[in-house]
Amino acid sequence: MKNSASPDHLQIFLAVLDAGGFRAAAKKLGTAPSRVSTTVARLEAELGVPLLLRSTRSIRATEQGRRLADQIRPLFRDVDAAVSEAVNSRGTVRGRLSLNVPGAVVTDILPPLVAEYRRQHPQVEIEIVVENDRVDIISAGCDAGIRYGEHLAKDMVSIPIGPRTQQLALAASPAYLDAYAMPQTPDELTGHAAIRYRLTDGTLLPWRLRKGAEIVTVEPRSALVISVNAFDSGLSYAREGMGIIAAFRNWCEPDFRAGTLIPILKDCWIAGDGPRLYYPSRFAGAPLRAFIETCQRLAGQSA
Predict the structure, then answer these.
(1) In the prediction, which pLDDT does 28 show?
(2) Whole-angstrom Cα distance, residue 265 to residue 269?
(3) Nearest to 163 by CA among 104, 103, 245, 231
(4) Topology, domain 7-74
């Protein structure tokens, strides 16, 4: 057994895992499927261990293959970042920036940041991957992620992005409140129809409110339940009078100003931490560093 393997062979092995098969990897790499299959077989022979379990319909990594992929993927990402750094050393930031974000930041927090970034760095291609689960951004092939209140993995750093705190507001349409009356206390919410969000783990997003000196959780009657993946769609149903909704205050403000939604129990709203941009601490390529600088600059302007 050899003690080393060709970096090209290792990259092809990762491409097969990421693409989910030899043909898909070959298409992505612009080569023949037979070459990809032969290369992986040669790599397995070089290392003396099986890396992939193959069937007629699918492939998956063996335990040895999974460990190898987890160890080498960050190394290749660092190589790509170093190459990008060399290319960008001439003063113009080029390359690709991939961000893994929850749906909650897509509509209002992220657009001005991305637009300003593109104005400053028009030669960077930006990809936004929307996922609400907690994600290993390295294995997902992303440069950075945005999440609320996440415990950061080892070797991750983070900075605030957007508002430092966000309130969860309660709101309903004038037509709904004309029909069912304005709740006067948190306890009265249990008798009202509610538009609720279901989290990816199957639970409903809790309604937490201030009741005197306490923070209480209210369980209203669900009239409509929406997946958190469609977080920005709930206000449309609230405007149609389907019930009371709990949504970020900054999302509701345009409706409050227009009168299409009415705030409910405003003195009971509580605030939570705003979103944070997180990324690997080892090495940030020029496109990511430039995005971090954009976020910090705009945060300083709004402070």
Answers:
(1) 82
(2) 7
(3) 104
(4) Arc Repressor Mutant, subunit A (1.10.10)
β-pairing, 165-172 vs 59-61, is unpaired
Which of 10-24, 249-263, 281-295 has maximum average pLDDT? 249-263
- Token readout for 137 is 């951004």
pLDDT of 1 reads 43
Domain with CATH 1.10.10.10 in the chain: 7-74
CATH annotation of 165-273: 3.40.190.290
Boundaries of CATH 3.40.190.10 in the chain?
92-161+281-302
The predicted structure's pLDDT at residue 37: 86
Q: What angle do CA 229, 113, 104 make, to 5 degrees?
A: 15
Q: Which has the closest alpha carbon to 216: 188, 243, 182? A: 188
Tokens of 251: 């999302």
Q: Which residues contact 137 (CB under 8 A, 6 or more apart)?
A: 100, 143, 144, 145, 278, 279, 280
Residue 262 CA to its chain's centroid (Å): 30
pLDDT of residue 166 exceeding 70, the answer is: yes
Alpha-carbon torsion angle 141, 146, 149, 154, nearest 10: 40
Q: What one-character DSSP code corresponds to residue 199?
A: -
CATH number of 92-161+281-302: 3.40.190.10
pLDDT tens for residues 43-87? 888 888 888 887 666 788 888 888 888 888 877 777 766 666 665
DSSP 3-state assignment of 86? Answer: helix
